[in-house]
User: Fold these one by one.
Assistant:
Number 1:
Amino acid sequence: MRALLILLEVIKELSTARIQRTRASLQTAAMEVLHVLGKIYFEKVQTWMNFFQHGGDDEGGAIDSIEQSLLALRALRRLLIAGWDFPNRSSEVQSAWGLLIGHFKDMLALATDESSSIHANIRLLVEKHLRQIAKLHQNLAKDHPVGFTLLPDSIELITAYWSLISQFGESFGSQTTGAANSKNGDDGGDQSMPIMEYLSLKGLLLLRACVRMVFNPAQTFKYQQAQDKEEKSRSRQLVRQTLLTESFAQTMMQTLVTRFFVFRSRDLHDWQEQPEEWERKEEGEDNVWEFSIRSCAEKLFLELMLNYKAHLVQPLIAEFANVASK
Amino acid sequence: MLEDKIDFGSFLNGTLAHEVQARQPGYNIIRRRIAIVLGKWLLVKKGLDRPLIYQIFQFILDKRDPLNDLVVRITAGRQLKNIILPFEFSIQTFRPYCATITGHLMALINEVELGETKLALLNTLTTLVQSMEDEVSHASFTASSTRS
């Protein structure tokens, strides 16, 4: 455990270093570290997954395993994001990616299974795994949008996130507690936000990253090599044609406006009572809006509106008015 | 491309311009959204009806209208920066709105307390000054001297 913890801290340091040389040293070791970490992570997950799905004798061992796999996962996440300039080009990363997507689905099933008898603490730990993987997805899409889309099953992944978002949307407006939209919505939101809300949030951010990648080419343009250009153009085409079609864009816009544009009472309250702070959170420089579903929905909607034919604008304004008068 | 212009143009002239003047409660929410949409649009769409957009911003920056609460006005103040950037900007087109908008903006800067927000609004003011070159100083002195 301790070794894992140390490894995590080292990776954290190296991946957030400002000096290019430091980060480069992480990249040279990345492959090997991935092997080690991947193995630990995989084995531990197998252990506890087996136990909680099928039962067994060694509950203590299963609990240890889940704590260890979480630690390994935290390190893995940072490694995958910072360890490769072109993550999609590495077959090891591709396998790890595919594996994690599989786990994501399994863990989600486990965490959301109402009839399951697993202890609340365990469920929480499973959720923490989910949060890590979701963070990986979102960060990778943000830092390596081309790489992200060209990794296996990414498009299906995003589609899966959308189903999650749609499902979550059904109950969103009716929630009055709004833990995530609270005044301290930044770090506090991370763990206190219910898992479905958290995953929906990450999904929205993912979608936004994709839309921006397709329609705002300039910002992702770091390298000029032929292969980079080819990948870039291929990924844009892929996303535009298989994911971000006109009809999907309209589906998204409809859902966003009707489900997620709702201002919860907390929002309205803060707007009135603390207008400057509220506005700053929405439009200010430090990206606090990334922790609010409504803000993310608005930003995604804006990107869609800018880039797709405005078929829905009339009904949308009517929708705004409906929402505003509630 | 042409279809693009028609879509956004008529949406702006028809729907948006109409909605921004609506007076029902809750329309402050719409005014805020309109300011944001316009701010983003001008960055990427060509050929929009700028005088109309300036008029809209002048309208929602006015404190005398109670629907223009602080959030609406700060949002407008922030987005104003995008609509007066040098790209496709013509001093002549903006001139009729300059004095009033500058006056509203400066009053707003004085009104807000949060440092970050003040700074963001000052950025807008800076852009305004840059885009209007010599004309702003005169306009702003006139506007602030008539303010009570």
Note: Chain B has a mean pLDDT of 85.
Number 2:
Amino acid sequence: MDGVADMGGMHGFGPIVIEKNEPVFHGEWEKRTVGTQLAAAMSGAWISDECRHSMELMPAHEYLQTSYYEHWLFFLERLIILKGIVTRDELAAGHLITSEPHTTLSKVSPGGRLAEIFHTGGSPARPSDRPVRFEKGQMVRTRNIHPPGHTRLPRYVRNHVGTVIDYMGTYAFPDTAAHGLGENPQPTYLIQFSGEELWGPDCEPNSCLTIEMFDDYLDPVS
Amino acid sequence: MPRDTGSDLTMAENHTTPPSDPALRIKAIETLLTEKQIIDPAVIDEVVDIFENKIGPRNGAKVVARAWVDPDYRQRLLTHSVEAIAELGFQGVDGEHMLVVENTPEVHNVMVCTLCSCYPWPTLGLPPVWYKSAPYRSRVVREPRAVLKEFGLDIPNSVEVRVWDANANTRYLVLPMRPEGTEGMSEEELAALVTRDSMIGTGFPLQPKPEA
């Protein structure tokens, strides 16, 4: 979607503010938030693509005026209702009222199992029959698409010509996976764009941008 | 593609009342997920322990130091990044797909996630607030030299600046150049020079302390 989260290249956000010796967590609620999300995700409640798209749906002014982990609270609240885990009344009340106290998910228990899952991770790599259409050194153009839903093709990169740096393998496609429309696994490639291609003649000198593009984002340059 | 604004499914639809305290909100979510037996609250403490004590930039620093002393490891790190990082025991969530990019006298690398906050957790831990913030995400892809200057790095125009946007599966780690005057230092001493920012690309490693 063409929302505020897709902010690459935007002006107007001011200087970068750096906190010296920043702690990992700025308060107990941030710890509970990160821990709750990881625990729920590891039980299979939802996938990262759903979390990311949920955050994108925050009203723009709220997105910009809230802290990062408040964005996580937004997606947690959205997903527990969207997924039918609890009702809106239960979210407001803070406890179950009518929902059954169980699901088909199995929660992760503390101890070795959590560490094991953390250490293994959850790769989105998937086999695919789709042809690998592009090779190293080839020029490609990113598509001028504006999906209303989730996409990992940022606006600042759309409809630009770049060079394939490498082929990265085949992966689940966030644009469909985030909406429960299937994994649609396909090739991804690292595409490099010159600064001038992206930002025009006023660009900074001698700089480039490399980004990982799904096959569905690309067309060959004839 | 569905038109999914989600506005009917969020607390945010009521704009006249401010959202309640984050602590109350997460308490409600945690209670509900516990009652539904989707999470065990004891896991939360373990996750926090992982991020506070078990993973963090010290992991990445060890990877960099190993690459500085061992040219074969350096080659593996650049061409088979995930496997090479795993040789030191670092792998897993948000590090399943990695590309380590080396700084040279001709090229300076810097990484970002413009769309959200993607970051290589096993080697760097959780990202700092500035990395996830609008100023950095918006500006570093468009004016990396100006951003790096704000971080105190003056990259000459003759050095190419390469920005990597971690929008998809691959997470990036910058392999900074080994500082001058570090000959004969142990891996442990070298790792102590590697800063978190030098592995994002917004800093350089520390200089070794002069001999007493």
Note: Chain B touches chain A through 90 residues (CB under 8 Å).
